[in-house]
Write a structure and sequence with these properties.
eight-stranded mixed beta sheet; about 45% helix; 2 domains; globular
Length: about 350
């Protein structure tokens, strides 16, 4: 039979090898450190335990047309203001409490906020591909919060997509920006001349989807997927019980107290990232002091992007964190707070 149908069996053989290769290349074990022993028992306990609050400051909102932007002030409002802009699908509470408290204790009025459609900030009701929003619009949201606070200027810090927004604020509204801090970010995510992320990033995501699905309805599966995502993007070699607990509690707090994640938001933010123009040329014209922080092991926005930002911005300083990926662990948050404080105090003195 084989002699009669050699092409068929060759095709079946190639198909079998392709399937085996795909299964191997999309195995969770290939890309992620193991979850801690007894993870299920830990999650069962946390799911039954009252969730602590992650809000530590004074809460308010800025009205923008028919939308409102939720924000939180930590520290003395008479101190220099530092606005923190978070990234893709991440709520304001993704800036950890110890991090914002550390900055406030160093003499800053720290403001963290939910980007439109995240957490307690409302979605744009009229969004469509014919009527989308771009980085310019998200930057205008930051200005709306500054106006609501009655502040003429502030230090602006952003991480990942938040760094893109912060850069756009500095470009479009330089008179409102004391200094710029760009963390794990880029002047253009889809720059064809630069490698942004590797094939491994895509395959690791496929591995998670194969194991847990796109949007797991089971809360334990959803949390496990999130924990592993953070571990990969942070290039963590071990997932500790402390890390598992922290991510779980924040996830539950956002779900139970702040509306959870809105499915339609991902495509809206992704559209803004992809279809907003590159900022490289405009970055070279900035005059305010700038700090660029980037992880040497960032798998999502490679270090080359951070270096290019620092090379282009005239009055800038680059800090490369050796064992840092894209999402900070506790030790990296402490290091970033220290670097940011030193930089900011250099501008305010």
């Amino acid at each position: 039979m084989f002699r009669k149908r050699p092409k068929l069996y060759l095709a079946l053989g190639i198909l079998s090898l392709t399937v085996l290769c795909f299964v191997h290349c999309t195995s969770v074990k290939r890309y992620f450190p193991p979850l801690p022993a007894h993870t299920d028992a830990v999650l069962d306990s946390l799911l039954k335990t009252p969730v602590p609050s992650f809000i530590v400051g004074e809460v308010d909102s800025a009205q923008v047309g028919d939308r409102h932007l939720w924000y939180e002030s930590i520290g003395d409002k008479q101190n220099p203001t530092l606005i923190l802009v978070m990234g893709y699908l991440a709520p304001a509470t993704s800036w950890p409490v110890p991090f914002v408290n550390a900055l406030a204790e160093q003499g800053y009025h720290v403001v963290r906020f939910d980007n439109r459609g995240i957490g307690l900030s409302t979605l744009s009701p009229t969004w469509s591909k014919r009527n989308p929003y771009y980085m310019d619009d998200l930057a205008n949201d930051v200005i709306a919060i500054l106006d609501d606070l009655g502040k003429k200027k502030a230090h602006i810090a952003g991480m990942s997509m938040g760094g893109m927004i912060a850069q756009t604020v500095a470009i479009n509204h330089p008179e409102r920006v004391e200094s710029l801090i760009s963390i794990s970010s880029t002047g253009h995510f889809y720059d064809k001349k630069m490698q942004t992320f590797s094939r491994e990033v895509l395959m690791s995501n496929v591995a998670l989807i194969r194991k847990y699905g796109f949007h797991p309805k089971d809360p334990k599966k959803d949390i496990k997927k999130r924990v592993l995502t953070f571990a990969y993007l942070g290039q963590e070699e071990e997932i500790t019980y402390e890390r598992l607990t922290a991510i779980t509690q924040l996830s539950l707090f956002e779900t139970q107290e702040r509306g959870g994640r809105k499915k339609q938001l991902g495509k809206r933010q992704a559209y803004a990232i992809k279809h907003s123009p590159a900022r490289w040329d405009d970055l070279s014209k900035l005059e305010m002091p700038t700090l660029v922080i980037h992880g040497k092991r960032d798998p999502l926005i490679t270090l080359a992007h951070g270096k290019r930002c620092a090379d282009l911005i005239p009055n800038s300083k680059l800090v490369v964190i050796e064992d840092f990926g894209h999402i900070p662990s506790n030790i990296h948050w402490r290091q970033m707070a220290s670097e940011m404080t030193a930089f900011l105090q250099g501008q305010d003195n």
